[in-house]
Amino acid sequence: MKKHRKRILPFALVLALIGSIAWASDWTVLRPQNRPYVTFANVAQFYQFPDYTRVSRTVSLRSDRRVIRAQAGTSELSINGVRFFTHFPLLNSGNEDLISVMDVSKIIEPVLRPSRIQKSGKVETVVLDPGHGGTDQGASSSWGTEKSFALDVALAARAQLIRAGYRVEMTRATDVAVSLEDRVNFANRFPNAVFVSIHFNSSSGGSGVESYALAPEGVISNASSEHHVSGADTARHAGNAQDEQNIALTASIHASVLTRLAAFDRGVRHARFHVLRDIKIPAVLLEAGFISDSSEGQRIATSHYRQQLGVAIAQGIQNYNAAVNYRSGGADFAVAKANLPPHTRSISEPLGAENPVETPYHHPPSISINGGD
Ligand SMILES: [Zn+2]
Question: How far is the CA of 308 from the centre of ligand 1 (A)?
Answer without folding.
Answer: 19
